[in-house]
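Record pair follows.
FIRST:
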Amino acid sequence: MIRNQASYPPGYYIEIHGKHTETSRHNNKETKRDIVDFHFRVALGDELIPKGHVTGLTPGKLEFLPDNKRGYRGTIIPSLNPTLSDVEEADYLTAWCEKYVADASKVKCFTLQREIRWHDTAKLEHLIRSALLETNYRGHISITFPTSHTSVTVYSPGLINRWRMTTWIRWIFYLSFLWIFTWPLLFFLTSRYEVVKSVWYYASKPPGEEMGRIPTTNDEVNYFYKWQSAIKRNVLKSNGLEQHILGFI
């Protein structure tokens, strides 16, 4: 299951938000409020998937918690132990999964993290801002690069974990403030395994190392030209009421 989930990249987007401030006067009082002019997302997830990738079969690059770094290794707090120094690197995932299954702890969880690296967001943001200025828009522009589905956690079967994952039970604890007592209890009861990452590279080298830098799909400039017209159109026609998503997530 972990290997299968590692074959799915995280959700990745550009979120473009434009607003201006409107000032009104009434009875000698000045009131300011923000007016949303546009707010939409453009999909970036496909840019992380290399050619030949088979979703469900081909994982992203797997990285494991190194022996010299503290982390959750079936422990309650970050620790340097136990390690898998005697295991072949190719078998790390299997070894950690087997260790999790063999763990006698009643409450435990295993987390796969998904991470994006080496995307030159500063360059892409600069290109998008330049395009938006060409539309004569003069409001405040915010451009961010949010992610989603950045982790998958598998919980062991058992009453406590079933309760912690049941929505209505969680709401009872939130509204009654019982979470003040239960969260510390869950923290000290749960053995955590956070030892593996599925890493998705936008390019073969980090931003700034342009010589020999090969994008996984499109580099930042080509991606911008691919979506430039659609972004401009969306800014010009948007009424600020809806958040649109352009492209495939």
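SECOND:
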Amino acid sequence: MSTGPVAVYCASSNGSAPAYQNAARSVGNAVAKRGLVYGGGSSGLMGVVSQATLDSGGRVVGVVPAAMLTKRPGFSKGGAAGEGSKVDVPTPDVETANTKKERIKHGEPVSLVEKGRETVETIIVNSMHDRKVLMAERATGGFVGLPGGFGTFEEILEVVTWSQLSIHNKPVVLVNIYGYWEPLRALINNANGAGFIHPENVSLVSFIDGPSDHGQHVDYDWGADVLRFLDAWEPHKWAGYGFDWSRTVTDGQVQGNLDAV
């Protein structure tokens, strides 16, 4: 069983069919019970899923690279501050403001919570990589993929890769509306057949397919299926590489190897 906040990766656009927005709303309503971690956008499926989580009484954490803020960071209907947000945050008290200035000076993430909307937290980070790392750390309950483009593909495949490398051991599940993720499933199976993905690692990413009749996908409760999957999930025993990620460049053995070069 997987518990804790869930990261949802999805598009900052709505897609070409109402079913995509309905699925995002369903998933947002469902993960409200655990908490949502997402990329902080207020448009497209990102805005739909975050607003649904808030409407259902859940907590939302949006992680946004500083470069994607179009104005001063703030909060708008549809989620945390992010791409396209133009709402200013209330002026913090002097002590809080000075603390945040010090964090910014040292390049550390800055957390902002608007008074009166304490269930929404925006965390501003320096880079896309910092965003992905922090989202993965906060998402103790796993990762859910809704339809999206290149950014969504990359985010999902990175957390799957981190599972393969034993950086974490968390569920990754894709919501397969209208068979959206079938090409990725075919690619994974093809890579397995060609000897590039170990058979035990194919299951590092799972798919929720919904009804076989795609006509039922428009109003289907995808969120309920997501929660059932997370509740039933058990940690994988995959063909990992046995890396010890607690080791750093200050490790004695690492320094010894460098000295021998």
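COMMENT: Residues 72-76, 82-91 have pLDDT under 50 and may be disordered.
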